[in-house]
Design a protein that fits this description.
463 residues, alpha/beta, Urease, subunit C, domain 1, TIM Barrel, eight-stranded parallel beta sheet, binds N-(aminocarbonyl)-beta-alanine, binds zinc ion
């Protein structure tokens, strides 16, 4: 099957140009002005539209057991919702729970995705147990295409690992070329603060935020980068939420260190005030790190603009309000941590970033697609509009107005963190490896068509 996308404005991280794009089967064959329409069996008129590489969300938790529950989107509902929002690739997290090998965790997550995913996906491995004998398991994972690992400096007794483990894992990546992704918060200190709060009877959702100070995040970011510096390897900070943490990344990068970080739409657009909503409503915004004071928001946007932050992901980890968040009705520490967002990332960053003049169109593409592909071993197969790349393409209507609501979204969760947000700019046509998944609000995809992506490691030298 050949498809020609004509008359659109192509946007990549590097340039914006009026050109046509020819798809042959699953890949892009040609990108240039004036490709004759008779070259292709199917012609899509993209006049007035933007055409950019499919979004890549490198931080999602589908079908993940966590906090006494399991995230409510599985690989079928989650990838379909992602497609509606213009995301054509995601990287989810397999969890090597204590007592389990990484091999077992990988097999388990393949089983969760198999027959369900409708877009391509990779996996990071969350490591909770790393005896010296397990270090070589990391190398085996890299050989399987799992070229990144997440380690937690928070959630003591559940996912947190100590500094020795973190340093050993970082050091191993000097040999196997993987990237360590760090959940950076000082979990031990936070744990003490939480116990004090509970002892004082402070159990409402707002205390989730009030017991996780920004300094606990900044300190952990500093420590993570310092350990990576000693090991002589890059490090990637996930879901960075505050100005204080951002300053640590900026200072490291100013010193020439390969420190990278992502933030998420919720940290750019929402504040701690959401957790103080009446009744138990604040539980909808309980995720970690927590939402911060409003003053942090413009600093994070600034960080995106000036490349102190390199990626926008979602940390999509949905739990239904009615029957999952409710587990913590009388105690905020029991509220499953996480929020939904896989569907709205491009809409929100386009509207509040590009339309509101905070970032350029090319920077938008770089943040939501190209840099994620580069950092996580998928480039130029993904994240690019060029001959030979996978035909993962979004045809974006820059004028379409859309109101975000749980009533109309496709995520399997009973609320939206962005309920009532009005955005201008939305995906009209979403193509994955040459197949149209979404067209004008209609879903044409198929569960199970998504493929596991074996991602490259950097091979010793950071590119
Ligand atoms: O609260 C969050 N972020 N839940 C998902 C797990 C994590 O830490 O990323
Ligand atoms: Zn995390
Ligand atoms: Zn996460």
């Amino acid at each position: 099957m050949t498809t020609l996308i004509r008359n659109g404005t192509l946007v990549t991280a590097e340039k914006t140009l009026a050109a046509d794009l020819l798809i042959d089967g699953e890949t892009i064959r040609d990108v240039r002005a004036g490709i004759p329409p008779e070259t292709a069996r199917r012609v899509i008129d993209a006049a007035g539209m933007l055409v950019f590489p499919g979004g890549i969300d490198v931080h999602t938790h589908l079908d993940m057991p966590f906090g006494g529950s399991t995230s409510s989107d599985d690989f079928e509902t989650g990838t379909r919702a992602a497609a509606f929002g213009g995301t054509t690739t995601l990287i989810d997290f397999a969890i090597q729970a204590r007592g389990m090998t990484m091999r077992q965790a990988l097999d388990l997550w393949w089983k969760k995705a198999d027959g369900r995913a409708s877009i391509d996906y990779g996996l990071h491995m969350i490591v909770t147990d790393l005896p010296d004998a397990g270090l070589e398991d990391m190398d085996s994972m890299v050989a399987e295409g799992v070229s990144s690992f997440k380690l937690f400096m928070a959630y003591p007794g559940v996912l947190m690992v100590d500094d020795a483990t973190i340093f050993k894992a970082l050091s191993q990546t000097a040999r196997n070329g993987a990237l360590i992704c760090m959940h950076a918060e000082n979990g031990s200190v936070i744990d003490v603060i939480i116990r004090r709060a509970l002892a004082e009877g402070k159990k409402a959702p707002i205390y989730h935020a009030l017991t996780r100070p920004v300094t606990a995040e900044a300190e952990a970011v500093h420590r993570a980068i310092a350990m990576a510096e000693i090991a002589g390897v890059p490090v990637y900070i996930v879901h960075l939420s505050s100005e204080d943490a951002l300053n640590q990344v900026r200072e490291a990068r100013d010193r020439g260190l390969p420190a990278f970080a992502e933030t998420c739409p919720q940290y750019l657009l929402l504040s701690v005030d959401e957790l103080a909503r009446p009744g138990f409503e604040g539980a909808k915004y309980v995720f970690t790190p927590p939402l911060r004071e409003k003053s942090h928001l413009p600093k994070l946007w600034d960080g995106l603009k000036h490349d102190h932050l390199q990626v926008v992901s979602t940390d999509h980890c949905p739990f239904c309000f009615e029957d999952q968040k409710a587990i913590g009705k009388d105690d905020f520490t029991k509220i499953p941590n996480g929020g939904p967002g896989i569907e709205n990332r491009l809409q929100l960053i386009y509207h509040h970033g590009v339309n509101e003049g905070r970032i350029s169109l090319n920077r938008f593409v770089e943040l939501v697609s190209t840099t994620p592909a580069k950092l996580f071993g998928l480039y130029p197969r993904k994240g690019e509009l060029a001959a030979g790349s996978d035909a993962d393409i979004v045809i974006w209507d820059p004028n379409q107005e859309h109101s975000i609501s749980a009533k109309t979204h496709h995520m399997r969760v009973d609320y939206s963190m962005f309920e009532g947000f009005r955005v201008t700019g939305n995906a009209r046509t979403v193509i994955s490896r040459g197949e149209i998944l979404v067209e004008g609000g209609r879903y044409l995809g198929r569960a199970g068509r998504g493929r596991f992506l074996k991602r490259a490691a950097r091979g010793g030298a950071w590119k």
